[in-house]
Amino acid sequence: MSDQEQITRGQHGFSSEPSGLAGGATPSSRDVIDDVLGDFFGGESLPIETIGGETQQRPELRSISSEEFVRRFRQETGE
Amino acid sequence: MRERIFSLEVEYGISFLSERGSSEPTKETLVSALRCALTDAVGLNESSFITTGAKFYHDVGHAEWAHPECRSAREVALYDKAADALLALLLPRAQEFLRAEGFRGRLLVVKNNVDVHGNTYGCHENYMAERETAWLDHEDYLRLSIRYLVPFLATRLILCAPGRVGLGRRGEQGFAFQLGQRADFINTVVSRDTRDLRGIFNLGRENEPFSEGNYRRLHLILGDACMSGYGTFLKLGTVGLLLRLLEDLEIGEIPHLKEPVRAMQIVSRDPSCTALLPLYDGRQMTAIDIQRIYLEQVMRYAERHPTSPEERELILLWAGTLDALQNAPSRLFGKVDWVTKKSVLDRLLAQNGLSWETPGLERHPIRYKLQELDIQYHNIDPAQSLFYKLLRSLRGAEALDTLWDAESVRAAQSAPPPYTRARVRGEVIASARRTGGRVEVKGWSEVRLGGQRVELYDPFTFFSAEAYTILKEGRLVSA
Q1: Rg, C-alpha atoms of chain A
Q2: B435: exposed, middle or buried (C-beta count within 10 Å: 0-12, 13-18, 19+)?
Q3: Where in chain B are the domains?
Q4: What is the ipTM of this complex?
Q5: Residues of A in contact with B108 (CB under 8 A)
Q6: Closest-CA residue of chain B to A8
Q7: Is B184 a catalytic residue?
Q8: Which of B137, B236, B401, B438 is the most buried (most CB within 10 A)?
Q9: What is the 3-state secondary structure (H, E, C) of chain A?
Q10: What average pLDDT does the segment B387-410 reach?
Q11: Are B395 and B438 in contact (CB under 8 A)?
Q12: Cβ–Cβ of A33/B330 closer than 8 Å?
């Protein structure tokens, strides 16, 4: 089968399992989830409020042209 | 343009669970500890760069990993996974540094994009792209690019989003599952910075191209970090394919969204992928419909132009993912992060006789377990991570990724991509580590060896005669 045929058939569902990534015979997702959930909460719980960081802040960029571009774009589209 | 540079800048959330009585280190201290561990393993003192050609540094409350220049989306997915794996390996060493400074506790690194306080941190994409085409100057071409790419970008969450518990920046709009992490933080179509107004399309790095000449840098800030290499590959690869169509001006008609920002939020809050999005011409389409229109244009393009094996693989994956989303989303379990995460959360709810529709779920004690799973999915430590626990159950104890085998991931923790300037940068650093020679690597486009400056302005340069002559002749003066 040519690449194009493969591509076309993939689009129409004949070969829609992403090739090479299916992982062969694998346990069912239900079994995997039950197995993992079964002992996931065995240890100390995670204090979720401590996870994360600060909102990304970057200095203004210096390009006048992109600023002008955005200004015009917003003006035209009424954004 | 068939040859392109791809890269990614990943911001990790970092935290420290202090032991009782121990003081709290700052984020900067935590990143410094990780950087010290990284320098010992693969880096240089006084440089943020490492032997893979990547850069790791502290960026306003986060650890930022700027990946080396890569030649393809698949290669970026490899280096992205290698970065996670290397950081995970170095956690114990970083904790030793912290302990030596008097901070006792556990260091956590999570690869997500939002915390429960409403902070967001990015996963920015970079693509080398043409600045103008034969028919259109820079501004007009930019205008065309925005017009063409925005409907695709606003709907691509279905392909590669990581999933999130909570609606609104701080979860104030409801306790429910949504596909995207940053969807609630994107508030305009086009932006020029990454601060107050975050755009679907960003112009922040327009004037920082990878190379001189007719090139620009497409810098996208709307995306989320993926745990699954499959997602990273699809995320970057589909944009790479569409850039080819744009640069050859072989684009077809696309559906224009009436309100792209609103549409992105609708897509993010619709795990069924059936929500109808209003179009400018009065019609309505689902995200899957819109993605299929782009896919069909790419397929027609691929009939007329040479394509690489990777591009053909991408087209198959894209088609297969859309088919699965429409007919059997469970086939994407273990590949598409949001599908995987939602499957686990749904199961936990079902085990407790609950569902997302249960009244008062936001006040039920199970919400804390759901939120914990939501965050632990992104923990980079394989011993703690929900993603890696699932991956090992699905693919075996050695598995590190959904796309690349463990051996390739391990190799990419120290070796640079072979065919970009990252190779010169990385090999110069590796040489200095072996010999103790004097090397300065302070930017992406030059290195200094023994005081001599070597320019690396062409990102496709993977060999510098000048640099290798200095290395061969041992002219790196010991520091």
Answers
A1: 25
A2: middle
A3: 337-395, 421-472
A4: 0.82
A5: 51
A6: B299
A7: no
A8: B236
A9: CCHHHHHHHHHCCCCCCCCCCCCCCCCCHHHHHHHHHHCCCCCCCCCHHHCCCCCCCCCCCCCHHHHHHHHHHHHHHCC
A10: 92
A11: no
A12: no
Rounded to the nearest angstrom, the minimum Cα separation between A53 and chain B is 6
Sheet holding B452-455, edge to edge: B439-440, B446-449, B452-455
Look at A50-54, A66-70, B6-10 and tell me which has the smallest mean pLDDT.
Answer: A66-70
User: Tens digit of pLDDT for each residue in B145-192?
Assistant: 999 999 999 999 999 999 999 999 999 999 999 999 999 999 999 987
Taking contacts as CB-CB distances below 8 angstroms, the residues of chain B near A8 are: 299
Percent of chain B at pLDDT > 70 equals 98
Tokens of B338: 């949001």
* Residues shown for chain A: 79
Radius of gyration of chain B (CA): 23
Largest CA distance in chain B: 74
Burial A60-78 (b: 16+ CB within 10 A, else e): ebebeebeebbeebeeeee
Report which residue type is found at B169.
R
DSSP line for B75-109: HHHHHHHHHHHHHHHHHHHHHHHHHHTT--EEEEE
**d(C-alpha B129, C-alpha B146), whole Å:** 13
At B119, which amino acid appears? N
Find the CB nearest A50 among B17, B188, B203. B17
Phi then psi for B129, rounded to 5 degrees? -145, 160
- Report the residue from A37, A50, A54 with minimal CB separation from B60: A54
CA B398 to chain centre: 23
A23: left (phi over 0), alpha (psi -120 to 50) or beta: left
Structure tokens that stand for B363 in this block: 């006040």
For residue A52, give how far its alpha carbon lies from the nearest alpha carbon of chain B (Å): 4
Distance of CA B273 to the CA centre of its chain: 23
What digits encode the pLDDT tens for the residues B95-112? 999 999 999 999 999 999
Q: Note whether B378 and B109 are within 8 A (CB).
A: no
- Say whether A53 and B59 touch across the interface (CB within 8 A): no
